[in-house]
Write a structure and sequence with these properties.
Shape: globular
CATH superfamily of the largest domain: von Willebrand factor, type A domain
Radius of gyration: 31 Å
CATH architecture of the largest domain: 3-Layer(aba) Sandwich
Number of helices: 11
Oligomer: single chain
Number of strands: 21
Structural class: alpha+beta
């Protein structure tokens, strides 16, 4: 069963009683990697592309957008559902909930090829987002993702921001791809659903950006993730920021009757998430106080788990000013007493040693202080641990998406880690495995067309493993084992 770890803590556990205070609530969310081995990620994701076709997108920008959209279509599996919306002065729904089968992909390519005919007019982004929301209300999906691409600011920014908030409330996670100056404005759109903005200076970079976006979508493990909190009266939250895996503001939570609800979107395999929420506290009497009760609600589609929950509380201790002074004075007194006792004990020990030396004469001292007996040498074979091996990814070949999926499902490592290995020239996917396990993993990854090798783990006898990126391990006896489909 997939295990999700959820923890709420504070940067300050003690405050002064009867005074207003501020502290930061830190929320950590991660999936236990050991629970992910051989657990497939959900591929039943509804992806809606909302593409800017305003006049400023003419030329290279719309051509780059069309190529990027086709890349999403080509990478999608048959379980994925695709919708396509274009907007200029008004919105156009071109595809609604089409499965990414061979026939469906052919229809998608035809629709994308017609986008350049729509170029012109202004930037009715709010209409585009709402049109995408309508398209995603069709078939049920494990996760819903909207990708908004634009090179400018919406006609009415406030209306576009409100549309993004409404989309987040419907469980849609919004990602934005910005060309040029649009990026700063797009941050406002992704904040309510805990999405991310991808920045591009050139239209030619869009295909790479959309490829990375699809890789992230494919790595979803938990979906429809919401954080709910019940706050103690008088506790007020401030602007909440996601600081890991990337930094972005998700806005100031709206508190209704002492409760708030945040859409955290989807949890990716291999990533750790941290959110920081400043809290303003009212004056509290001396004692322990629970500031909030937090619940994380989420689905794990790959195992059919719905509405799973994790809970945690945040407490603080309020200490009166007089009590704090008394506590500090008591700590100082105790420390001074401990030092005095240690000094007295040390002086007594020295005095006892002097008495012994004085009692032993010079003639007897040689007999009293004798050299220690040498250690007996034992003829014992050093114990050797079992031979261990590493599985090394050398080259991903031509089907990187396929390699990423297989490596992710077989090892539980993140796509970002695999991509970094390739950029650095390869490295260890798994270290310290028994030979039969290493060879099985090697053969499994090799079926994708990747070049994979089994190397002996360095310093097996001492139990030390080499760095995952090291390629200095010698091939095992009998030559290097290489598996290539």
């Amino acid at each position: 069963m997939v295990e999700l770890e959820f923890k709420v803590e504070s940067d300050c556990w003690e405050i002064v009683a009867d005074e207003q205070a501020r502290l930061t609530c830190c929320i950590d969310v991660r999936i236990d990697p050991d629970s992910l081995v051989d657990v497939p990620t959900s591929s039943n994701t509804h992806i809606c592309m909302v593409l800017d076709c305003s006049g400023s997108m003419a030329g290279e920008s719309i051509e780059g957008a069309m190529k990027a959209a086709k890349r999403i279509v080509d990478c999608a599996s048959e379980e994925n559902t695709i919708s396509l919306v274009a907007f200029e002065s008004r919105a156009h729904s071109l595809l609604e909930g089409v499965r990414a089968t061979a026939k469906g992909k052919a229809a998608m390519h035809q629709k994308i090829d017609r986008l350049h005919k729509l170029v012109g007019g202004t930037t009715a982004m709010s209409e585009g987002i709402r049109c995408g929301m309508q398209a995603m209300r069709g078939p049920d999906a494990d996760a819903k993702v909207m990708i908004v691409l634009s090179d400018g600011v919406a006609n009415v920014p406030a209306r576009a921001a409100k549309a993004a908030e409404d989309a987040a409330q419907e469980g849609i996670q919004l990602y934005a791809v910005g060309l040029g100056t649009a990026c700063a404005y797009l941050d406002r759109l992704v904040a309510p659903s805990n999405g991310t903005v991808f920045r591009n200076d050139e239209a030619a970079d869009l295909v790479g950006t959309f490829t990375e976006l699809f890789e992230r979508i494919e790595s979803f493990v938990a979906s429809n993730v919401f954080l709910e909190m019940e706050l103690t009266p008088g506790v007020t939250p401030g602007e909440t920021v996601r600081v890991r895996p990337d930094k972005t503001s998700i806005g100031t939570p709206v508190v209704d009757a002492g409760a708030l609800r945040l859409n955290l979107g989807n949890i990716e395999r291999g990533e750790e998430y941290r959110y920081e929420m400043p809290l303003s506290l009212p004056p509290l009497a001396a004692g322990d106080h629970r500031l909030l009760e937090a619940r994380l609600i989420y689905d794990v589609p790959s195992v059919g788990a719905k509405r799973q929950q994790r809970q945690d509380d945040l407490w603080v201790t309020s200490i009166s000013f007089a009590a704090q002074i008394a506590k500090e004075e008591a700590e100082k007194t105790a420390a001074a007493a401990a030092e005095a006792e240690a000094a007295q004990r040390s002086g007594t020990e020295y005095a006892d040693a002097s008495d012994v030396v004085a009692a032993v004469g010079d003639g007897d001292r040689a007999n009293t202080l004798q050299a220690p007996e040498p250690f007996e040498e034992l003829d014992v074979e050093p114990q050797r641990g079992p031979d261990l091996y590493d599985v090394m990814l050398i080259d991903a070949g031509d089907e990187e998406i396929l390699v990423f999926r297989e490596v992710r499902d077989a090892t539980g490592v993140s796509l970002r880690y695999v991509r970094d290995l390739l950029r650095l020239g390869g490295g260890a996917l798994k270290s310290g495995l028994e030979l039969d396990v290493a060879e099985a993993l090697c053969d499994r990854i090799a079926t994708t067309g990747a070049r994979v090798e089994v190397h002996p783990t360095r310093s097996t006898r001492s139990g030390l493993l080499h760095s995952p990126r090291s390629r200095q391990a010698s091939p095992r006896a009998g030559g290097r084992r290489a598996a290539t489909a």
